[in-house]
Every structure is written in structure tokens, then in C-alpha cells.
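About this split. The held-out portion is used to measure sequence recovery: a designer receives only the C-alpha cells and must propose an amino acid at every position. Recovery is the fraction of positions where the proposal matches the reference. Here is one held-out target exactly as it appears in the evaluation file.
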């Protein structure tokens, strides 16, 4: 069905009460890709302007499934993640308890509901019995004009745009920020914002401000990859073997990180974003985070490209804090090496006005890598 909040909400309520599971699709996707996803995920019906149209060859979802959410990857055909009511309810209730969010205050739905972050906003409204304030897309000025109090769930780019148009954070009862790394300057502008980490397979954010929610376990796995277990895990990937959950009930993420003795989680970056240059391993996200601490940099990503001499070389892609500002590779390299080994410093620099993004607000690293390669 169309993944707009207004279209999805009544069907989501029915699914929550034991009705047919929903499969929200992003209306911004090309028609051909949406058709391929329907063919791959085999739903029983599709919503058309005139009503529901039954489809042949449907495969029932696992018991207790409320939603099937396509993963947001930028390569290949997205997998369908089956999320049960028990997992989603555990995620919603643990998150509300952790933040102490006032249940009588409405949630603002401005994230795509075809992704788990937006779906969770609607489910928080269902669980608390409040009517969500729904936007069909992100409108910074309209959201900034809301009188409040409201609860807000956004990605970092949305938060930056809200603050840049003069939004008054005192109107926000709580702010959840996830989906991407929180730049240091943005965190400083709104220190009360709660940083969340998670993915579709974990029913969205399952770690708040580096601490797992109640019922969630996080551990270090082979190669430093983070493994997640507990009450918020998906039932499995739809129509896929393996299901994504191992025999011990753990999901191995694509992220590398550490878990300290107190259980605090530090996400270092994606396992496939480790750049090997001159025989040394560089975690791209760590270098990008350091670059974002420079006052002249608003946002940064680091991309590895093939190099005959070094194997790979690291290219820093940065958005300047001020339009037209001149950024120097020499200065940024020196800034990185003040805090990190010299081999971690980027070897090339690309300055851009904006980062390419996926529909859920995450940086489209595949598009970024293609832009770097063709530069």
C-alpha cells in the first residue's frame, strides 16, 4: 500500500489488533522498483484508489506480524523484514519508558512511514492513544510553527533544518534523533536530544544514548561486528533463508563497535566502510566524525577508492558550515592527525553543497562513492 501516514494509519491500527499485516511502500520509488518489490515480497493484496485489489500467489506472513518493512539499503533488492506485534510493542514501550515521554503529548510524524522510524511514530501514537500530527513529507517551516508541546522523531539532517529555520526547541517535549551519525556541532545545539541506534531488523532504535533499551542485549561478535538480541528483534526476513537470526537468537549487524563493561555501546562504523590504506585499517565513520568537529565543516563522509600504490585511499567529502567557504585538505589532514594516527588522515578532499540521501534521510553512500569515482 502507499506509504503515506494518512493512508497507512487505519490499516496499521487494524494490523495492531490482529488484522492483516501491512506492507507500506515508498510512493517516491520508481514504478518499476515498486512492482519488483511487490513481486518479490508476495503480499495478498495491494491498495488502489478504488479499494483493495487481491493478488495471486500470496504467501502469508508469520504469525503475529504487524508490518513487513523493506530494508533501506542502496544496493540490490530490499529484503522484507517481518516485525511482530510483540517486537514492535517491546520497542515502543521500552523507548517511551526510557525517555519518560508524556503519553498525552502528540507525536509528529514527518519521517517516511515506509521505513521503521516513521512506522514507530504512528505506533507510539496508537499505544499512547493520542492522535499523531502527520506530514506527508518533511516541511521544516510547518513543523517549526507547531505550537507544542509535541514529541519529535527525526534524522540529523531534519533536526539541522528545523534549527536553521528558527524552530523553538522548548516546544518539543522530547526529541529522538536516529538513522545516521549525530554531528558534534548539532549535538551541541540541542544537547537534550536523545541519540538512537538501531535498524529495521531491531524494530528501530534499540540503543538510546549508547545504552540498550530494557530487554535488549548488545555484544561484540567476530571481527568487532555488533550482535543484537532480545525482545525487539524481527521474526526474520520474509521468504528468505537464512532468516537473519542465528540459532541462539542473535542478529549480527553490519556495524562494528564496542561494548564496555557497563554495557554502553559505541558504534564505530559499518564493517564494509573500513578502508585499508597502506596496510592500515581506517574506520571511515571515525574519521568523518573527527572532521565534523572542525568549525568549518557542517557534515562529512569518508569514502575509500582504489589506489595502485596504497590499495585504497581515503577521500573526505565535506559540506562546509558556510556556503562558499574554502576548505583546505592540508588543514583538515592536520586536524585529523591531532587526534588520530597519521595514516587515518584523508588523502583527497571533495567539497559539496549537500550529501545525496536515501528516502529515510541516510546518506546514500553508493551514490557518493560513484560521485567520488567520477570526479
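Reference sequence for scoring:
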Amino acid at each position: 500500500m502507499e506509504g503515506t501516514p494518512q493512508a497507512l494509519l487505519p490499516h496499521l491500527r487494524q494490523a495492531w489488533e490482529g488484522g492483516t499485516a501491512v506492507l507500506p511502500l515508498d510512493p517516491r520509488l520508481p514504478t518499476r522498483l515498486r512492482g519488483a518489490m511487490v513481486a518479490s515480497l508476495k503480499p495478498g493484496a495491494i491498495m488502489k484508489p478504488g479499494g483493495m485489489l487481491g493478488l495471486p500467489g500470496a504467501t502469508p506472513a508469520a504469525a503475529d506480524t504487524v508490518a513487513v518493512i523493506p530494508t533501506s539499503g542502496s544496493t540490490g533488492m530490499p529484503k522484507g523484514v517481518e516485525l511482530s506485534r510483540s517486537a514492535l510493542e517491546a520497542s515502543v514501550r521500552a523507548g517511551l519508558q526510557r525517555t519518560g515521554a508524556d503519553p498525552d503529548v502528540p507525536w509528529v510524524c514527518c519521517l517516511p512511514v515506509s521505513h521503521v522510524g516513521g512506522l514507530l511514530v504512528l505506533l507510539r501514537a496508537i499505544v499512547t492513544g493520542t492522535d499523531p500530527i502527520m506530514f506527508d513529507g518533511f516541511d521544516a517551516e510547518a513543523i517549526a510553527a507547531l505550537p507544542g508541546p509535541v514529541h519529535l522523531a527525526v534524522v540529523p539532517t531534519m533536526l539541522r533544518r528545523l534549527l536553521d529555520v528558527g524552530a523553538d526547541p522548548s516546544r518539543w517535549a522530547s526529541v529522538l534523533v536516529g538513522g545516521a551519525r549525530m554531528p558534534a556541532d548539532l549535538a551541541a545545539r540541542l544537547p537534550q536530544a536523545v541519540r538512537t541506534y538501531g535498524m529495521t531488523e531491531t524494530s528501530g532504535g534499540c540503543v538510546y544514548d549508547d545504552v540498550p533499551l530494557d530487554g535488549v542485549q548488545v555484544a561484540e561478535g567476530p571481527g568487532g561486528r555488533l550482535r543484537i538480541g532480545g525482545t525487539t528483534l524481527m521474526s526474520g526476513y520474509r521468504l528468505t533463508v537464512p532468516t537473519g537470526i542465528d540459532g541462539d537468537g542473535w542478529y549480527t549487524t553490519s556495524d562494528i563497535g564496542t561494548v564496555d563493561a557497563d554495557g554502553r555501546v559505541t558504534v564505530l562504523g559499518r564493517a564494509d566502510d573500513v578502508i585499508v590504506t597502506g596496510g592500515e585499517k581506517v574506520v571511515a565513520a571515525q574519521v568523518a566524525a573527527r572532521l565534523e568537529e572542525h568549525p568549518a565543516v557542517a557534515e562529512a563522509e569518508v569514502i575509500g577508492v582504489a589506489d595502485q600504490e596504497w590499495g585504497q585511499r581515503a577521500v573526505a567529502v565535506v559540506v562546509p558550515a558556510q556556503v562558499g567557504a574554502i576548505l583546505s585538505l592540508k588543514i583538515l589532514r592536520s586536524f585529523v592527525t591531532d587526534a588520530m594516527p597519521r595514516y587515518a588522515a584523508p588523502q583527497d578532499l571533495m567539497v559539496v553543497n549537500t550529501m545525496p540521501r536515501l528516502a529515510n534521510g541516510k546518506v546514500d553512500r553508493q551514490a557518493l562513492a560513484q560521485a567520488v569515482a567520477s570526479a
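Annotator remark: The two ends are 39 Å apart (CA to CA).
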